[in-house]
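FORM 12-B: Structure-to-Sequence Request
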């Protein structure tokens, strides 16, 4: 008995950290070191849409995940200051409407999203004075607009659309947020239960990200090819739209977002930060 529990304990200790990353293009730099670089083989890494990343962390199936900001707050998770943020247009969070925004009564949202659904509610309420009913669906613009007045599409599905070719009112919610508040917006960050955010793991994730940021030319070529996007789009997206290192301004943007969501319907607490104390921002 003693021997068995001892073995169990040791295998627990040796088990690789279970990390759930977002499957979209924006996550490639964050995991590049863990997939292709010096951190390769050190993590039990899986990929999923953001809503599933949150579920895996909350249900204990992952130690840490790229968790949508709203879910970090809802579940009292801690975060490390590395994730997906923007300081202007984000390009991949699009709200497309078949009528003026003030007339939206129903909004179909991508089932992979959690943070941007609440961001859409905040922008629609504060700027356009509407509080639509939310319908959760697969990210198919035509199908969404058959059932709702407007559609929220995120991630690679949004990158596959060309906003210039959409003949309907279209909002970039990153741009809307920055215009409204003067602060960056944080969509997701590496996050988990306090006891799982071990310093070695947070250092490893930081090293993987820094490695990725040093390999952007390679990432742009390989990911453009793999995902069927133009290199120009991927270059613009990863070097101008998305920020990866979260600093004090991102923290302020996150706190304000949570306050605005709380004003809409009460609840989410603040998110606490842990692990890495280097507050360099990722703006370029
Ligand atoms: C900017 C993005 O951020 C994403 C949006 C999220 C959300 O809406 O819950 C969560 C994770 C991020 O990957 C995007 O994927 O387009």
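FORM 12-B RESPONSE
SEQUENCE OUT:
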């Amino acid at each position: 008995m003693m021997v068995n529990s001892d073995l169990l304990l040791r295998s627990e200790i040796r088990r690789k950290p279970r990390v759930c990353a977002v499957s979209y293009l924006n996550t490639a730099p964050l995991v590049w070191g863990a997939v292709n670089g010096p951190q390769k083989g050190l993590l039990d890494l899986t990929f999923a849409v953001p809503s599933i990343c949150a579920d895996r962390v909350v249900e204990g199936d992952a130690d840490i995940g790229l968790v949508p900001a709203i879910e970090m707050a809802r579940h009292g998770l801690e975060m490390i200051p590395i994730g997906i943020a923007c300081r202007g247009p984000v390009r991949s969070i699009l709200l497309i409407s078949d009528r003026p925004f003030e007339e939206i009564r129903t909004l179909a949202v991508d089932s992979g999203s959690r943070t941007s659904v609440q961001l859409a509610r905040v922008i629609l309420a504060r700027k356009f004075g509407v509080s639509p009913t939310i319908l959760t669906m697969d990210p198919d613009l035509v199908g969404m607009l058959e059932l709702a007045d407007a559609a929220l599409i995120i991630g690679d599905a949004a990158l596959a659309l060309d906003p210039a070719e959409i003949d309907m009112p279209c909002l970039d919610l990153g741009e809307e947020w920055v215009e409204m508040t003067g602060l960056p917006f944080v969509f997701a960050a590496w996050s988990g239960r306090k006891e799982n955010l071990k310093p070695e793991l947070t250092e490893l994730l930081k090293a993987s990200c820094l490695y990725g940021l040093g390999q952007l030319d390679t990432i742009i070529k390989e990911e453009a090819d793999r995902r069927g996007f133009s290199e120009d789009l991927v270059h613009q997206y990863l070097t101008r739209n998305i920020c990866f290192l979260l600093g004090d301004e991102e923290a302020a943007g996150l706190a304000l977002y949570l306050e605005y969501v709380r004003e809409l319907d009460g609840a989410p607490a603040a998110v606490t930060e842990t692990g890495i104390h280097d507050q360099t921002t990722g703006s370029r």
